[in-house]
Structures are given as structure tokens and as C-alpha cells.
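queue> pop job 88
queue> type: inverse folding (structure -> sequence)
queue> payload:
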């Protein structure tokens, strides 16, 4: 083992008159550990929010959506068959989209009406697994049943089995003027997917009933696709635009819900920058620790120089001392951050019970629990960043140590 490493390791275990320097070293090490752990936990929670938000949105929305001109598409079976030839497409389902007013017991709410085929819809969306009452399969042609979002049902006061009235904007021309189309539907189910946008503004009916209500004949609004890898949606949409025939508009979930995910990503980046400052402050503490250590060890440095140690060797001694603080602090932070990130679902409820608070109220937030998704690249990037900062913090104090003049340092010894 080289003498630089031996001396550097010994200096990290300062005793006697150097207790204060040891205390500063300890706080620097703990500061790095705290910063690294906080960074890993926060990035994991932000990843969890991103994953949960994506799952809830795509539980109702489609990965890729193909629509026709003026929201009308004829021959959807051909479009679905041609789209299914793409290896990424695992399911396709037709839909009819329209706006309507929902009325019940004097309460009126605007809503989006989606006509679906229940058997096919279950393959492209997860609404069937989020039913609070009834089943999606209860939507049958000609029965004029309707499935409401939980918030929409609560707003109009409707329950399973009630008869509600849908008022479509497409009107009938009569001698008395233009009259809206009015049809009575029976509530056969209520769903809750956890996204207020859908729970409060979406109603499902059978595809044929929607075609009759909106006078679409055999046409539909479009076809919804589910992919094997949702992260390939943009690539698949581009490929389909080149292969499908007809006047079609193809969009994917990254475009239709871009604002949600962009907001989460921006927040994640800002939190990274803010917590990065904790690690940076801890790295500055290493600088102050080594500067004090160099001042305290002037005589030792002079003796080593007279014994033949080179300026580079002196630099290595203090680089070893500072780097060791960074390595130990980073290791503690990584282990602590991983353990905490993997047990957020246990730690957060414990803190809520301990302080009698609820961090994410159901009445305010879409997601009422802190999700966590620990990703290896975040852990590795955080650890490397911490180690690099710790190493950079040792350069200036080590350079100062290598510039010590032995004669001046030993003059009064």
C-alpha cells in the first residue's frame, strides 16, 4: 500500500487536539448521506407519481387513436384489421364520441358520451376492472343502458337502476323549429378510475345505441388501439400514418395528455436541482474540512517533504482524506435512500398516524397515496454525481497542501 493512502486514511481518524476537525468531517459525511438519500427518495416518488398517473389515464384513454374526418369513420373493421398487422398492436376497439347533457331529478350536467363494444373495450381499457356497481357487459344493443363515472353519478344524484335522460346536440328539424334529440337511458353501472376528468365527465353506452343517438348509421368516430409497449406509441403512430389508407387522423397518448406528463417531468427536474444543492453544500463542507486539516498539518507536511515526498504525493494524501468522506457518505446515503424508497408505503402511513395528519387528501389530490418507483439509473446517477462533487472538493485544499514550504513550516517547531 502506498504511503499516501496510509497517511490519508490515518488523517481521517484524527484524535486529541483535532477533535473539532473530526466533527466537521463527520457533519460533511452525514450531509452528503442526507442529500443522496433525499435525492433518491424524491426521484423515486416522482417516478411513482408519473407511473401512477400514466396508469390511471391509460386505464380510460387509448395508447393510439385513429379517427376519421369530421369525427366519422366508415369501415372501421378494415382500419382495425390493417392496424393489427403492426406487431406492437395487441387489441383494437371501435368507439363513438359525442357530447350530451345528462338530466336526472332536475339536475343537469354536461358529459362526454362514448359508445363502446364491451367485449372489445375491455381489451383496450381498464374501466371494467374499476366498476363500483354493475358490469360493463350490461351494455347491450337496443337496451339503452348507460355506465356513469362516479362523480358524474353523484352530481346528478343517479344510482344503479335509475333512468336518466340524455339530450344530444344533434337536433330534429320540425315546423316548430330545431328540437334537440332526447333519449332515456337506464343506469346499469358506475365506475371510478381515480381521475376526476373521467369520473366527472364520461358516460359509456353501447356502440349501436350511440350510433342511433348521434345518427351515425354504420360509421363510428374512430378506433382505439392498445400496444404491447406503450412507450412505443409515438413510433407506432408514425408507422400507421404511413401504412393506413384513407383520410385518417392518428394520435397517441403522449400528445393527447402531454401537459400532465410534462408538468410531472418539470417538477421532477426542479426537485432534482433543489436537492442537488444539499449535496453541493456538503461538498463545500469537505473543502472547509480539508483546508483546516492542511493548516493543522503544516508541520507534518514539511517533515514528509524533507523525507522526500513530492508535491503530487502530498496532494494524494489529502485527496484520499476528502474522497473517503465522500465515498462513505455516498454509500450511507445510497443504502438509506434505497431502503426508504422501497418502504415509502410503510413509512408515510406511520408518520401520518404519528402526527395525525394526511399528506395527500382524497378531496384535493387525484392520487391520495405516495407511490414509489425506484429506478436503477436514478440511483447510479445520484451516486456518481455525489462522488464527482466530493472529488472536485478535494482539489483546491490538496493543491494548497502541496505548496507548503518546509522551511517556513518548521521555522517555529
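queue> result:
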Amino acid at each position: 500500500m502506498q504511503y499516501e493512502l496510509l497517511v490519508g486514511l490515518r488523517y481521517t481518524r484524527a484524535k486529541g487536539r483535532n477533535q473539532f476537525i473530526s466533527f466537521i468531517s463527520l457533519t460533511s459525511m452525514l450531509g452528503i448521506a442526507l442529500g443522496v438519500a433525499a435525492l433518491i427518495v424524491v426521484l423515486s416518488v416522482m417516478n411513482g407519481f408519473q407511473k401512477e398517473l400514466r396508469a390511471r389515464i391509460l386505464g380510460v384513454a387509448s395508447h393510439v387513436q385513429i379517427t376519421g374526418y369530421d369525427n366519422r369513420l366508415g369501415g372501421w373493421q378494415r382500419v382495425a384489421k390493417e392496424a393489427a398487422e403492426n406487431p406492437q398492436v395487441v387489441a383494437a376497439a371501435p368507439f363513438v364520441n359525442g357530447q350530451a347533457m345528462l338530466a336526472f331529478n332536475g339536475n343537469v350536467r354536461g358529459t362526454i358520451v362514448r359508445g363502446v363494444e364491451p367485449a372489445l373495450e375491455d381489451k383496450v381499457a381498464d374501466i371494467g376492472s374499476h366498476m363500483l356497481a354493475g358490469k360493463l357487459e350490461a351494455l347491450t344493443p337496443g337496451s339503452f343502458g348507460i355506465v356513469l363515472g362516479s362523480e358524474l353519478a353523484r352530481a346528478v344524484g343517479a344510482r344503479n337502476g335509475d333512468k336518466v335522460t340524455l339530450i344530444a346536440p344533434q337536433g330534429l328539424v320540425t315546423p316548430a323549429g330545431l328540437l334537440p334529440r332526447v333519449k332515456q337511458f337506464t343506469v346499469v353501472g358506475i365506475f371510478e378510475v381515480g381521475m376526476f376528468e373521467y369520473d366527472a365527465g364520461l358516460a359509456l353506452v353501447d356502440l349501436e345505441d350511440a350510433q342511433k343517438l348521434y345518427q351515425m348509421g354504420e360509421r363510428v368516430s374512430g378506433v382505439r388501439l392498445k400496444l404491447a409497449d406503450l412507450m412505443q406509441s409515438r413510433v407506432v403512430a408514425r408507422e400507421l400514418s404511413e401504412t393506413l389508407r384513407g383520410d385518417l387522423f392518428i394520435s397517441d397518448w403522449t400528445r393527447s395528455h402531454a401537459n400532465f406528463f410534462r408538468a410531472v417531468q418539470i417538477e421532477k427536474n426542479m426537485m432534482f436541482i433543489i436537492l442537488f444543492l444539499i449535496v453541493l453544500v456538503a461538498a463545500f463542507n469537505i473543502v472547509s474540512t480539508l483546508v483546516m486539516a492542511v493548516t493543522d498539518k503544516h508541520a507534518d507536511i514539511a517533515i514528509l517533504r524533507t523525507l522526500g515526498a513530492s508535491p503530487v504525493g502530498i496532494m494524494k494524501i489529502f485527496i484520499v482524506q476528502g474522497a473517503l468522506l465522500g465515498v462513505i457518505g455516498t454509500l450511507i446515503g445510497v443504502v438509506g435512500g434505497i431502503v426508504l424508497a422501497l418502504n415509502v408505503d410503510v413509512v408515510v402511513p406511520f408518520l401520518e398516524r404519528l402526527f395525525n395528519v394526511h399528506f395527500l387528501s382524497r378531496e384535493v389530490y387525484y392520487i391520495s397515496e405516495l407511490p414509489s418507483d425506484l429506478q436503477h439509473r436514478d440511483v447510479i446517477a445520484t451516486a456518481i454525481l455525489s462522488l464527482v462533487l466530493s472529488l472536485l472538493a478535494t482539489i483546491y485544499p490538496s493543491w494548497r497542501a502541496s505548496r507548503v514550504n518546509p522551511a517556513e513550516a518548521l521555522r517555529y517547531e
